[in-house]
Amino acid sequence: IEIGCAAGKNALDVLKNLNGAEYVMIDPYEKILVDYDDYDHERLILMRKQAKERLARYSNNIKGIYDFSDYAADKIIGKYDFIYIDGNHNYEYVLSDMNNYCKFLSDNFVFGGHDIDQPGVSRAFVEFLASTDQYKTYDIKDPDWLIYKEQ
Question: Is the preceding peptide bond at 28 cis, omega within 30 degrees of 0?
């Protein structure tokens, strides 16, 4: 699962390097009605098109959910080995994504995200880890954060 796919560059890297049966991409793209960071409405439309073109050869493995991550969680069933959060970087959204999507983690997993150097992301990461003793193994490889479990 990847939340916040933009033009699909990260998804392409993952799909090239991991052998997964299904890759769920979640991004609202043009449903965002206000400018978000440096993404205006036209750029969001272009990025959706770029992602589709960039990932065309993997289309049989991709399930695209074009919605906000809070709503997309209701459309997901099953457990996943890899979940990566790179949507809205404001604290409340990151923490919500972490709480909503951790329930989809398989027994062995990598749960990560992007831009740990941003205040909202780092605060959510610290609070999420402090809220439970379930996740003990983590790492920060700037600009990413990773929580993982492997046997």
Answer: no
Outline where the chain has alpha helix (H): 9-17, 41-54, 69-72, 91-101, 119-130
Closest CA to 42 of 28, 54, 30: 30
| β partners of residue 62 | 23
Residue 91 · residue 120 · CB < 8 Å: yes
Q: Is the Cβ–Cβ distance between 135 and 110 less than 8 Å?
A: no
Contact 116, 141 (CB under 8 A): no
Strand partners, 63: 24
Q: Is the pTM of this model over 0.85?
A: yes
Strands 23-26 and 2-3 turn out to be parallel
Mean predicted confidence (pLDDT) in 68-78? 96
pLDDT of 18 higher than 90: no
